[in-house]
């Protein structure tokens, strides 16, 4: 297992993110991109053929959530390793992801160096497992293998009052828009209070996941607009 390249499926709705992940995978020795899918349904077919080792799974997909993809894979007997890519490190979401066999949870935004380190740690984990294959292992062998997966650095935690499910909804609405949106437009489209929509939009802007601009209407009063950052 350790001598074979890690056959990797990239699942990401945004072409820019998919291209970034493809580049990161190609830059780490021992990994090969075996396919790219832009939706959950597109990912399930190749994932269930048994010719992959790893899925890099963006949790924000157009047809189903990343958790739904994980759930579908496990329900059909797939034991593929999954590395999740998500906006938040909300404890409930992380726990749910881990319950479906996600072995790494990478928080956006992330750097090329951080993601490379994630893949290298996963590779070290596979080598450690392969080294003990076919024989009895000691507790320290188990601890050492699991330690290979530990990530350095801190994740992104949502402020009090913000929730991961609502953030997912706001992100999906913003990503699907053809142009910048105001807090009023997001609130109206999602049935949220304006102040609630603005809190999520401001958080996305502070995380550099959305671009905030200012527009002046006929009254001369400034209005903030938010555009999903695609680069």
Automatic annotation (TrEMBL):
Principal cellular location given in the protein's record: cytoplasm
Domain of life: Bacteria
InterPro entries from the UniProt entry: 2C-system_Tx_regulators, CheY-like_superfamily, DpiA-like_HTH, Sig_transdc_resp-reg_cit/mal, Sig_transdc_resp-reg_receiver
GO terms of molecular function: DNA binding; DNA-binding transcription factor activity; phosphorelay response regulator activity
Gene3D superfamilies, sorted: 3.40.50.2300
Entry GO terms, CC: cytoplasm
4-aspartylphosphate found at: 58
Protein name: Transcriptional regulatory protein
Species the sequence originates in: Frankia alni (strain DSM 45986 / CECT 9034 / ACN14a)
């Amino acid at each position: 297992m350790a001598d074979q390249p890690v056959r990797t499926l990239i699942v990401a709705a945004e072409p820019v993110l998919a291209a970034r992940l493809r580049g990161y995978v190609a830059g780490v020795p021992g990994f090969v991109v075996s396919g790219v899918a832009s939706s959950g349904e597109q990912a399930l077919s190749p994932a269930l053929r048994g010719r992959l080792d790893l899925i890099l799974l963006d949790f924000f997909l157009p047809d189903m959530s990343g958790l739904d993809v994980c759930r579908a894979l496990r329900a059909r007997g797939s034991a593929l390793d999954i590395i999740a890519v998500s906006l938040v490190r909300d404890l409930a979401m992380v726990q749910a992801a881990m319950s479906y066999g996600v072995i790494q949870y990478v928080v956006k935004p992330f750097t090329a160096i951080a993601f490379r380190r994630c893949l290298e740690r996963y590779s070290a984990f596979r080598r450690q497992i392969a080294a003990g294959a076919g024989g009895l292992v000691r507790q320290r062998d188990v601890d050492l293998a699991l330690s290979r997966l530990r990530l350095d650095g801190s994740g992104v935690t949502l402020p009090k009052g913000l929730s991961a499910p609502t953030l997912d909804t706001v992100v999906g609405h913003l990503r699907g828009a053809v142009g910048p949106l105001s807090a009023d437009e997001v609130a109206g489209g999602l049935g949220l209070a304006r102040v609630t929509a603005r809190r999520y939009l401001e958080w996305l802007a502070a995380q550099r996941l959305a671009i905030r601009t200012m527009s002046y209407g006929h009254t001369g009063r400034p209005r903030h607009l938010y555009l999903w950052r695609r680069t």
